[in-house]
Amino acid sequence: MKWRIIIWLLILPLTPVRAQQNDIASVEDPINLSVNSLKQFLSIYSAQNEDELVQKFSHLVERLEKVEKRRKSDYAFLRSIFYKTHNSLLTEYDRLATMQETLNDGQFGCLTGTAIYAIILQHFGYDYRIIELPNHVFIHLELDNKSYVFESTLPFNGFMRTTVEMEQLLKQPWLNHRRISQLTTVGEWFSDFKTLPNQYKTIDLKQLAGLQYFNESAKFYLSKDYVNAMEMVMKAYELYPSERNEKLMQLIINKILKYDLIKEDLKNRYLEKYITSVRDRKLSQTK
Question: Could you state, in order of their start, the residue ranges of all structural domains in the chain?
Fold first, then answer.
């Protein structure tokens, strides 16, 4: 009987440890979560070197993890995130760069720059907001009752405290997509943070990925490649069913239906896809 009691006592302390290990294993590795978020943007085009691009991003995150261990304050660490990321990945401004171009060559616009910062802030557990303007995006976050901005297009002073005026405007999020031109792409640089246009919206990473597809669609449209433009905008609408994307879809489908070089069966197929996409969104809004 004594031996049974001794064996039971030896096993008992191990049980919660094993359960704890299983709980830890069930939680997704933060770096895997970050990589999955990054792949939302890389999936716009298939790249043979995707693993290399992911590794490049992961290497930066690993460097920042070392910085985090010796950080003196959250403010100091946020500064390190901003400037070390800019020096490592964001080297040449190109307003409509895709994520592949950003990680391959350092070419970036506000969209890919903001996406990279958002994924890194998510990795380290910071709450943030992605602010969408008609032609620009940036990050706003609050920490210890103070408010900050990550403006990716300003390499030397893009991490900054917000002004009182800007704080008042940020309390009233609103963006009327109906007033945005169908081809207003998202990628401009923005430096005047003393004031903020009173038309903006808070979006998430999935919607930001949708805006990357929107930009590509607009580029194809301007080059009169209406088929690829339609493919891109339908994906944009799937990720971000906004009026901005719906307006561009309408513009493109009208061009497709009038374009003589596109076969009738293809016209009908895209018309059906367009109607289905818009109808499904309207139905989801009524549920």
Answer: 29-203, 224-287
Residue 275, amino acid: I
| Placement of tokens 């996406």 in the chain | 115
- Span 167-225, pLDDT tens digits: 655 665 444 444 445 556 665 555 555 545 556 789 999 999 999 999 999 999 999 99
Hey, CA dihedral for 194, 206, 96, 94, is it positive or negative?
positive
CATH number of 29-203: 3.10.620
Torsion from C-alpha of 175, 209, 103, 111, nearest 10 degrees: -10
pTM: 0.80
